[in-house]
Write a structure and sequence with these properties.
Length: 237
């Protein structure tokens, strides 16, 4: 059911935000970061990053903690309005646009609006295929000068809301959440179309490996991936 009232959408987004914040305060987190300096949950330093997050896991990084210097690229499709309202509720500013269609306009806006900010993208959205990297992530990184940080998120126990092309992971209360990130990937500002495709494949490979490690961590078949785990903590209020 689609809701056409903007005011009602904002109220529902605020209610969902409150519910998720309560849920996330019950969770236990384990971090496996290739470079702890790339965390978006601390003020941005001299180097900002572009975080690549699969569409099915986007709830987890949104509600882990406050992100004081992050903007997100959200599509201009209708569902993007709901996502934008929720992001605004948690203090993440959304930039509406597409990196593939109308890309020039979206990237120009990001260059202007993301100065001193990190960027978050879901490179397999908004219509899939599931966990299949599109070239827009590498393109935006190239044009904004931000290194790409591949990520993965998994839960020991979770509920999956079915969608038309992917499911949305929602952690069960009191479960353990595993947070992984890979080494930042720098992409030249003058990268050609062929180079962007090669970097896209590199990001895809890193995301695939991180998610494979995350699944094994959640299943308990490995104790830690190749990166060093950070201290466990609860999310910031």
């Amino acid at each position: 059911m689609r809701i056409n009232s903007r005011r009602l959408n904002i109220v529902l987004a605020a209610a969902m935000t409150f519910g998720f914040r309560v849920l996330f305060r019950t969770l236990r987190f384990k971090y496996y970061l290739a470079d702890p300096q790339t965390s978006p949950y601390q003020p941005a330093g001299s180097q900002q990053y572009l975080y690549s997050v699969w569409h099915d896991s986007m709830v987890v990084p949104t509600f882990i903690g406050r992100q004081p210097a992050t903007v997100a690229l959200v599509g201009r499709h209708r569902d993007g309005s709901y996502v934008s309202d929720i992001l605004n509720s948690v203090g993440i500013r959304s930039i509406r646009g597409s990196s593939s269609r109308g890309g020039s306009e979206a990237v120009k806006q990001m260059i202007a609006d993301s100065s001193n900010h990190h960027i978050v993208m879901t490179p397999d959205g908004p219509r899939g295929p599931r966990r299949e990297m599109k070239s827009g992530c590498a393109f935006v990184a190239s044009r904004t000068g931000k290194h790409v940080v591949p990520t993965a998120f998994t839960c020991r126990r979770a509920y999956y809301i079915p969608g038309s092309w992917t499911n949305l992971m929602i952690p069960y209360p009191f479960t353990t959440v595993h947070v992984l990130s890979g080494a930042p990937i720098a992409i030249p500002a003058d990268a050609s179309k062929g180079e962007l495709e090669r970097y896209t494949q590199q990001i895809q490979a890193s995301m695939d490996q991180l998610n494979a490690d995350a699944d094994q961590l959640a299943a308990g078949t490995i104790q830690q991936p190749s990166t060093t785990p950070q201290a466990e903590r609860r999310p910031a209020a």
